[in-house]
Design goal:
The protein contains four helices and no strands. Helix 1 packs antiparallel against helix 3. It is elongated, with a radius of gyration of 13 Å. 18% of the residues are buried.
C-alpha cells in the first residue's frame, strides 16, 4: 500500500505541478524533485508495488488492474 500510495501521490503532484507553481506551493513532490525525477520516483514506486504483489502472490486480478490505471 505504501508504494502504491506514494506512486499515486507523485502522479497527482505531477498533474498539479503547473497549478502549484503558479500559486507558489513548494511542497509538491514534483515541484521539489523536478518533473523528470518525479517520474523516475513514480516508476520506481510502481516497480516496488508490482514486486510486492508478486511476492504476496496477489499479482492477478483487481489490484493489478488498479495499478495499470495509474500510468505516468
Amino acid at each position: 500500500a505504501a508504494h502504491f500510495g506514494m506512486a499515486f501521490q507523485v502522479a497527482d503532484d505531477l498533474d498539479d505541478m503547473a497549478q502549484d507553481l503558479a500559486h507558489k506551493h513548494s511542497l509538491n513532490i514534483a515541484n521539489v524533485l523536478g518533473k523528470e525525477q518525479a517520474k523516475v520516483l513514480f516508476h520506481e514506486e510502481m516497480r516496488q508495488f508490482d514486486q510486492t504483489l508478486k511476492d504476496l502472490k496477489l499479482d492477478q486480478g483487481d489490484l493489478q488492474a488498479l495499478a495499470r490505471l495509474l500510468v505516468y
